[in-house]
Amino acid sequence: MNNKLGRNDLCWCGSEKKYKKCHEVFDDKIEAYRNEGHIVPDREIIKNQKQIDGIRESGKINIAVLDAVADFIKEGVSTEEINQLVYDKTKELGGIPAQLGYEGFPKSVCTSINNQVCHGIPSKDVLLKNGDIINVDVSTIYNGYFSDSSRMFCIGDVNEEAEKLVRVVRECVNKGLEQVKPWNFLGDMGEAVHEHALKNGYTVVKEIGGHGVGLEFHEDPWVSHVSKAKTEMLLVPGMIFTIEPMVNEGSDKVFMDEENGWTFYTEDGSLSAQCEVMVLVTEDGYEILAY
After folding, report:
1. What share of the chain is helix, strand, coil (3-state, %, to 5)?
2. How far apart are CA 196 and CA 164, in angstroms?
3. Per the annotation, does 163 bind a ligand?
4. Alpha helices in 97-247, H assignment, sequence order
5. Is 257 annotated in some ligand binding site?
6. Model pTM?
7. What is the CA radius of gyration of the chain?
8. Phi/psi of residue 11, nearest 5 degrees
9. Looking at the DSSP assignment, which residues form a beta bridge with residue 248?
10. Residue 1 in this model has a pLDDT that exceeds 70
11. Interval 191-207: pLDDT, tens
12. Which residues of the sequence carry a binding annotation for a divalent metal cation 2 (predicted)?
C-alpha cells in the first residue's frame, strides 16, 4: 500500500479515527494479497464515505435521465432528440452531461444502434426504426462526482434473435454482479460474464471494457469482461467501477469509424448489445449506484 501510518495516526480514509481502529487490518489484508503476487488497489481507487455518498447522488440523476429516455424513446424519434432530452433532463436535475466535450466528444449521450458496438454519435438524420435495438449510454457530473450507466431498448417489433441478444447481455451483467464481493477478483466477474455469453452462442468484445469511476469519468482499474477467475485486481470495499459487456451476435472483432473517430462497429455487421451498471463493492457484496 501507500506510506505506512502509525497505529495512532489518523486513518487515511478521512474518518477521523485512529488508523488502528479503522483501516490497519484492512491494509494488512490487502498487503498479504500483494505479497502473493495479486494485483491490488491503491488507496486512490478506494472511495471514502463522503465520496461514496456524492457518487451515489450523481448516480440517482443518471438513473432519472435514463428513466426519462425510457418514457420517450420510440419508432420515429431521432437520436438527436434523445441527445437533447438527455442534456435538458440532466441540467434540470442540477447535473452536467459528462460526455459532452469529453476528449472532444460532440454530444451529451452515446446512442449505438444494431451493429454499432459503442460510442454512437446522435444525429438528427438517424431515426429509430421498427425492429432496431439501441444502447443509450448516459454519464453525469453532479457536485463534481461522476456516474455512468447504459440501457438497451427494443424499438417496436424486434425479432426473436435481437430480443434474445438484449436479454442475454442483461443476464451477463447479472452473472457478473454475483461475483462482485470483497476479496474476490475482477477476473471472477469477467469470467462469469464471458461464460454466459459463450453458453448462448455469443462473443464478448475484448478490446473495450469497463472502468473505475466516481472522482473522474474514467479511472483505474480497466475492467475486462473476458478475464479468468482469480486474476485481475482484488476487489475490496470502497471500489467503484462499471460492468458493461459488449456482446456480439457474431464475431468479437470490431473496428472504429475513422471518419468520426469514435463509433465502433462489429466487423462482420452482426448485432451488438451492451448493458452498463456502476457498482460499489460493499462489506458484504455490492450496491448498484447507477443502472
Report:
1. 30, 25, 45
2. 13
3. no
4. 160-177, 186-199
5. no
6. 0.95
7. 20
8. -65, 150
9. 203, 272
10. no
11. 999 999 999 999 999 99
12. 148, 211, 244, 276
